[in-house]
Write a structure and sequence with these properties.
- By secondary structure, this protein is of the alpha/beta class.
- It contains 21 helices and 23 strands.
- Strands 15-23-22-16-17-21-18-20-19 form a nine-stranded mixed beta sheet, with helices on both faces.
- Strand 22 and strand 23 form a beta hairpin.
- The longest helix has 29 residues.
- It is globular, with a radius of gyration of 24 Å.
Length: about 625
């Protein structure tokens, strides 16, 4: 596991561990102090390039700043990849296949990049001597640790499913206390994640990470191609799965891969045989036809069949009713929301950055517990990114005042948290598109109430309005509801904590017509349950909207326009000014285009922060 002898902990101060996901999609960094998370962020938020895949120097710098440490204070650096893992199995495969030499060259080049991390770290932070140790933690162990070791469970089944990492595509086992005992794996070249990615490419969604679009498209079709999907994915008696490799290229040739300026880009993963089986691929510019919708539905159905097959076997082996999930496939919120219906598991935990970014946390926690550290932390909120105070926002407003005035917008200061939430709730209830920038940025890909665009879920036209004014995305993609946790059971068919928007539940049939903007075509919603403890300000805002309308939820989508979610107030203001967003709440300041119904006393430089505000996160 470690690339160096474990350093003796320095007893005079807390142990600092830096976790890194580098040279893979969604590069990220996290820092823990004596087993408690201090900060975590993806590099894309600082670089402003989606899925940035290089070395996360800016995310690391932020983590140092938030923790108040320097590189010289770090005891250990943990990276979520270990090229030595499964070495014999990897070598045997490469030697047994004619394509082995080509595949080996690609893996050696990737290994060289990761081995350069110590030098890159010192280069990024010159003059700060590093006295600690570097460690490489196997990819799926990092995933499992990122799920279980920050979960509320003392004991649980733990499952990781993704594309590939360290020659494996899935792993599962038992988490208990600070230990994770591995029970099984699926190895290269078989992968549910790669299956989903290849079919996503086939359907014409060519950008890395487009699988969520297929999830949104699937309910519009029927699973009429499920028999064909069962020819591609075959289920084993032990819960594992295999691919019919005739439909894929990754096992016999090196797949073209580039960063394209930082964002990962893959060549085709599927072979011509897939088009023989399913018909011609869809080109990205071509219209979506009924056949494409049916294939999307069949793809999702096959994924769920294989996923629940695996989970059923894990339950039979372990006999546990709690489960923690990680890996890129754990972002499949549709399947996650069906776990209680389709398996004996009763409680499900998925941390907000379940994909490769989360490996930064997992590597750090795996190392912490290997060092003998006890469990003392539960991730019950996602607000681990940068936050910006009133003085920073005031400085931005002063610098941009000319552009604000030229835009015809009116700036207003709000004195109290109560008034802030009431004003925002009124704007939402009036049908306005509201930017909401508060507190520390979310960890993971979901906007969860601090970097969000908020709207009225009661308006049937709100999806069209949002797409016309800001998002400019496919019309079939749903928008999510943020609901008061105490009201979730009244509106959804299942009642469970879903703080990170990682599960899709069915909305109660009698409620669907009341919230059409967040009800998908199949009657579902990818909900976020909001508690007062996790985010008091957002909870208060939703409560104010409920008091006005009787509906205890708002439509919540990420604060961005075809870019990573905004991080800094400068990006929020820029997004507001260049789109047709109606109102922006930037801390305790309100910027409004159509301000007649929202008019308040003029902005005063003395209004710095809401007087009764609680600090979310």
């Amino acid at each position: 596991m470690s690339s160096a002898v474990l350093a003796t902990p320095r007893m005079a101060r807390p142990m600092i561990i830096l976790g890194i996901n580098a040279f893979h999609s969604d590069s990220a960094a996290a820092i823990i102090r004596d087993g408690r998370l201090v900060a975590a962020a993806e590099e894309e938020r600082f670089r402003r390039i989606k899925h940035w895949a290089g070395f996360p120097s800016r995310a690391i710098g932020y983590c140092f700043e938030e923790a108040g440490v320097r590189l010289s204070d770090v005891d250990h650096v943990a990276v979520n990849q270990d090229s030595r893992a499964h070495r014999l199995r990897r070598l045997a495969y490469l030697l047994a296949h004619p394509s082995g030499l080509s595949l080996l060259r690609g893996r050696l080049q990737h290994r060289q990049k990761r081995e350069a991390i110590p030098a890159l770290l010192r280069q990024a932070f010159p003059g700060e001597p590093f006295r600690g140790a570097f460690h490489h933690v196997e990819h799926h162990l990092s995933h499992l640790s990122s799920a279980f070791h920050v979960s509320p469970f003392a004991e649980a089944a733990v499952v990781s499913v993704d594309g590939f990492g360290d020659f494996a595509s899935a792993a599962w086992g038992r988490g208990h206390g600070s230990r994770i005992d591995m029970e099984g794996r699926v190895y290269f070249p078989h992968s549910l994640g790669l299956f989903y990615q290849a079919l996503t490419q086939y359907l014409g969604f060519s950008h890395y990470g487009d699988e969520y679009k297929v999830m949104g498209l699937a309910p519009y079709g029927t699973p009429s191609h499920l028999d064909a999907m069962r020819r591609i994915v075959r289920l084993g008696a032990d819960g594992a799965f295999t691919l019919d490799l005739a439909y894929f290229r990754h096992h016999r040739e090196r797949i073209a891969f580039s960063w394209n300026g930082g964002s990962p880009s893959f060549g085709d993963l599927f072979s011509p045989a897939l088009e023989v089986l399913l018909g011609p691929r869809r080109r990205p510019e071509a219209p979506l036809e009924a056949r494409h919708r049916d294939i999307a539905r069949s793809l999702q159905a096959m994924y769920e069949e294989a996923f629940f097959h695996l989970l059923g076997a894990v339950h039979r082996r372990l006999g546990l009713t709690d489960i923690a999930l990680a890996g890129g496939c754990a972002m499949n919120s549709v399947a996650n929301g069906k776990i209680r219906r389709m398996t004996p598991f009763r409680r499900v935990y998925v941390q907000p950055a379940a994909g490769d970014a989360g490996g930064a946390i997992g590597a750090a926690y795996s190392l912490w517990h290997r060092q003998g550290g006890a469990r003392s932390f539960v991730m019950d909120h996602a607000f681990w990114g940068p936050g910006f105070g009133p003085s920073e926002i005031a400085t931005l407003i002063a610098a941009q005042r000319g552009e604000i005035d030229a835009s015809g917008c009116v700036l207003t200061g709000i004195e109290t948290e109560r008034e802030l939430c009431r004003t925002a709730a009124e704007a939402i209830a009036e049908g306005k598109v509201v930017g909401w920038f508060q507190g520390r940025m979310e960890w993971g890909p979901r906007a969860l109430g601090n970097r969000s665009i908020l709207c009225d879920p009661r308006r049937a036209d709100m999806k069209r309005v949002l797409n016309a004014k800001i998002k400019r995305r496919e019309s079939f993609r749903p928008f999510a509801p943020s609901v008061l946790a105490e009201a979730a059971a009244e509106w959804f068919e299942e009642d469970d904590a879903v703080p990170f928007m990682m599960q899709v539940f069915q909305i109660r049939e009698e409620k669907r017509t009341l919230i059409p903007a967040v009800t998908h075509v199949d009657g579902s919603g990818r909900l976020q349950t909001v508690t007062r403890d996790a985010n008091p300000l957002y909870h208060r805002l939703i409560g104010a909207f409920r008091d006005l309308t009787g509906v205890p939820m708002v439509l919540n989508t990420s604060f961005n326009e075809n870019e990573p979610v905004v991080c800094r107030p400068e990006e929020a203001l820029d997004c507001f000014l260049r789109t047709r967003m109606d109102v922006l709440f930037l801390g305790n300041l309100m910027l409004a285009r159509d301000c007649e119904a929202l008019l308040r006393p003029p902005f005063s430089e003395s209004v710095i922060a809401p007087q009764d505000a609680a600090a979310p996160g």
